[in-house]
Amino acid sequence: MKKDINSLLVPGKRVKIRTKNGLSLSGLVLQRYEIFDPNYITLKLDNGYNIGVKVDNILEAEEEIVEERKASGEFVPETLPSEVVSKKKIHIIATGGTIASKIDYVTGGVKPVLKTEELLEMVPELRKIGEISSEILMSIFSENMAPPQWEEIAKRIYQYQQKEPGTGILLTHGTDTLAYTAAALSFALGKLSSPVAVLGSQRSSDRPSSDSAFNLIAASIYASSDICEVAAVMHGETGDSYALAHRGTRVRKMHSSRRDAFQSISSLPIAKIDPFTGNIKVLRSDARKCGNELLDKEIGKPNYKFSDKVSLLKFYPGMPPELIDFLVERGIKGIILEGTGLGHVSEQLIDSIKRATDSGIIVGMTTQCIFGSVNLNVYSTGRLLIKAGVIGLGNMLPETAYVKLSWALGNFGYEEAKRILLENIAGEYEERELPSYFPMWKHE
Amino acid sequence: MKKESFPHTSPCGSMSEVSDVETSLNWDHIGLKVGLEIHQQLKTERKLFCNCRNTLVEEGPEVIFERRLRPTRSELGEVDVAAYFEWKKGRIYEYHAPLLASCLVEADEEPPHSMNQEAIEIALGVALAMDSKPVDEIHVMRKIVIDGSNTTGFQRTALVSIGGGLEIKGKKYRIQTICVEEDAARKGEEKDERISYVLDRLGIPLIEISTAPDINSPEEAIEVASWIGTLLRMTGKVRRGIGTIRQDLNVSIAGGEKVEIKGVQELEILPKAVSFEAMRQKKLLELKEELYRRGLKKDDIVFSPIDVTLILKSSKSKVVERNLSKTKGKAYAILLRNFKDLLGFELQPNRRFGTELADYARFYGDVKGLFHGDELPGYGITEEEVRKIYDSLGGDIEKDNFILIIDEEEKALKSLKAAIERIKAAFDGVPKETRSILPDGTSKFMRPQPGAARMYPETDIPPIPISDEMLKRAFSLKPPTPGEKKRFYEEALGLNPSLAEQLIGSEQQEMFERLHSRLKGKVDPTTIASLLLVHMVSMKREGIPVDNLNEEQIYESLVLLSEGKITKEGLPELIKLLSERPNAKPIDIAKSSGLLTMGEKEVRDIVKKIISENAKVIEERGERSKSLLMGLIMKELRGKAPGSLVAKLVEEELKSFIQHRS
Ligand SMILES: [Zn+2]
């Protein structure tokens, strides 16, 4: 008898169950997540609720055949024929996460929308911005992105822009490492001939309050603009009022869950975007305009290689020097340190650092304060670090510095890489840090 | 508004008048079935999914932000109708987030924390009291709600127990489910496409109790609702005050349809809501009959709008003028043959069939309203203009009818289409709708009923198995049923039946219980109960600010009584004085206002004094002067000595006085 019950309690079966404590239940058996307790089944009752039933509590079960019920109060909205107002071309490249999805209300499963047509049905506003096409390049979690993926993405964008010149690119990305990828593309793609927007969503697209459509619309507006820079385009503040386009090398995820987590650090965003009116307001006078590419000598085949022999190391009180020795032994070619304050580590580490630089490893110093610049001349530890061969990296963000060193070592030799590290090639150095660049924390 | 009721123009019609339906409906006869959904806020320390305090705030700092919501799609591409139209209207929600009672969770900027255990246990306690069976494992669900009242666009809800029931006057009413869910944000102003909400209420735990449709009359509805309300209050774990308990109901009559009515906040409205809805369904069935009697068919109703803008172009009507002056403003009318008087037909007091059409037009087409032939001429539209409309539609003013919408062309047409669909539905009787309650107990169309399928798992919260420890704690929270409690008050505490009845479920019940247990039987329960329920209530009625008193003052006053320092008669007097001096100590007030009891010697002196003052009367009446003396002495003592003591002393002193004289 027990065996029979088990054969019925499989996902997808509609069953009628009697429990030992006297309940009579009918519903659909659903798939359970693997991390859930296996001693229960999940049952979706006819009233829509899910409950868990202990397998031991089931007295008897039988299969139930029920007609599909059509829910009232639901309909498929008619989609209007595409009325493309603008001739601008926008190409969406998906890398993972879901910018748009549909829900299977029965199982709760979320399915990403893959086809351009479906996407336009769900975010019809995009039709007014440009002619949309899309592709799925890869499907990985943001936290699994690594230099090889940056390379693949950069290569694909470059190829697409060669084939379809003038097309704005939207790169959809999980938010965790979105800023790293934005920085990587800023270096790898060099001088752009059309805008590249990197975007993600902080609230998943299966919920009515998702920020994904908002960001998608804003990013499309950016991608059809004449700003030829790699930008992360996300919510500007907690409300659905405006989005910001942040320079790819100055942006950082500053909150684990807020919509406006992405902010330009010690810097100003490139532009402010109103997704409802389509207005885009350029905030920086040094925003690079499209159309100058012929004048730029550097234009040409981009350098999209990244070295995986670079490490980002955060100093902490008590950090043992062996950590650096270990990296040296492992054949690392570059280390970005996140020092304290103006760029310090404990004296204990200096010998190890010296050994590293002596053996041809590039060591750069950034600050773990996130805001502000390193300056190795102020205190004696800083001066010792300079003597040990450490390169102070000004106000370049630690993550950007890591990406930049990986890119520099991927494409150039030791001397050239060292030189490039200090050159401001994609706005990674903010040359003037203004008092207004530090957020005004509220205390009362 | 012109009141044309149908029977005048249909001599053979069998349609009844609205006014007498209310009193003459035989509920059994029309097959009335009502189910209740009772939502009660729980008095937990924290909110359901975050650490914010469970409280509403009227002032303090707040953050304001704006959001929009977008309908989500099912696998088949379906969206919820109401959600879709809200989005189409370009709704903007303005959220006010008070920092004292909301955090990032309410702002939908942080995933929910794990579910409040206390809330689950209170709900389980209630479930046990109604013999409802707890589920083995609780799954939190998201129920799509897209009117902006939830920042997420869904309400988190979890089913906690199934089945059970209650019994009133020998009749059983089944319980279907008990759920725990989060309350929605408080609605503020609504202006055009902008609605504002306050986030303090969002996330307050609610218990939702759903009954089976076993209720068969408006009276039963109120009985069941009060019974459940009382039970909930007896947990001592529910919030009180306006808006802390809300009822939704579903109502059907034979041949009608199960219609949901949302948002009944006051219990007194409940029976009205039931009878008005029963009436509405009965009227709709009569309307259906009349349609067939007139030989009309569903297919006769066609969407054939005629542009009548020219006729109304120079109209003096303010409404017409305003709407025609919009860009692309047009007037469209549709002729309804043989429909005279049917649109003015009353379904509920002051709500006609035409009103229903207007509600549909508003919902689907986002227009301000709809005109029909039965209410025109009116609203500044002249007889002449009406006649011209009939002419241009090719209709007979005596027999036919029309609907008219003046707005932006696209909206006008869309909403006329919706009105036509609603008219077609009249041929089937009662449509399946969700309606919202109006202050007078009538209701208006809110949306078509949502599918039960609009519920999907809250993936941010893992399932919660109901453990034995949880059940044990739930058992200790299990409230007695109202009947059990009344018996306890009468039999164990000796309250009289009316006092016991009054106490149960009252606001004072919890305080009574606390005072009684703290006093450990040193003060008679009847004295405590009548202080709270009789004396203090009537003082309040007289305008004495008894709400100023804190429980400690009442407790200390009762202690004074138990120690004999004040008398039973002096207690209300002391309470009265204390309420005007909220920070004072009872003993000090008793002292300063002379309410402390006197010793026997002092009382005896007063008795002697009064007797000698009234020697003449006593000489005339002898022993019979006792009651007169009692009165005078009690007045003098003003509660400073117990009556029994006074009576004893009067007896003794009177006797010795008379003996002395004779
Ligand atoms: Zn909170």
Q: What is the C-alpha radius of gyration of chain B, as a whole number of Å?
A: 33 Å
What fraction strand of chain B? 15-25%
Strand order of the largest sheet of chain A: 10-7-11-12-13-14-17-18
> The biggest beta sheet of chain B, please?
12 strands, mixed
CATH architecture of the largest domain in chain A: 3-Layer(aba) Sandwich
The number of helices of chain A is 11
The two chains with the largest interface, and their residue counts, are:
A-B, 54 and 67 residues
Cα distance spanning the termini of chain B: 89 Å
β-strand number of chain B = 25
Determine the strand fraction of chain A and express it as a percent band.
15-25%
Report how far the terminal alpha carbons of chain A are from each other: 67 Å
Named once each, the bound ligands are: zinc ion
Tally the structural domains of chain A.
3
What is the CATH level 1 assignment of the largest domain in chain A? Answer: Alpha Beta
Structure description:
By secondary structure, chain A is of the alpha/beta class. Chain A has three domains: about 60 residues, SH3 type barrels, CATH 2.30.30.520; about 190 residues, 3-Layer(aba) Sandwich (Rossmann fold), CATH 3.40.50.1170; about 110 residues, Rossmann fold (3-Layer(aba) Sandwich). Chain A is built from eleven helices and 22 strands. Chain A has an eight-stranded mixed β-sheet with strand order 10-7-11-12-13-14-17-18, sandwiched between helices. In chain A, strands 4-3-2-1-5 form a five-stranded antiparallel β-sheet. Chain A has a four-stranded parallel β-sheet with strand order 19-20-21-22, sandwiched between helices. In chain A, helix 4 crosses helix 5. Chain A starts with a helix and ends in a 22-residue tail after the last helix. The mean pLDDT of chain A is about 90. Chain B has about 650 residues and is of the alpha+beta class. Chain B folds into four domains: about 140 residues, GAD-like domain (Gyrase A, domain 2, 2-Layer Sandwich), CATH 3.30.1360; about 260 residues, no CATH class; about 110 residues, no CATH class; about 60 residues. In chain B, the strands form five sheets. In chain B, strands 1, 5, 7, 8, 9, 10, 13, 14, 15, 22, 23 and 24 form a twelve-stranded mixed β-sheet that branches. In chain B, strands 2-4-12-11 form a four-stranded mixed β-sheet, with no helix packed on it. A four-stranded antiparallel β-sheet of chain B has the order 16-17-21-20, sandwiched between helices. Classes of the chains: A alpha/beta (about 450), B alpha+beta (about 650). Chains A and B meet through strand 3, strand 4, strand 6 and helix 2 of A and strand 2, strand 3, helix 3, strand 6 and strand 7 of B. Zinc ion binds next to loops of chain B.
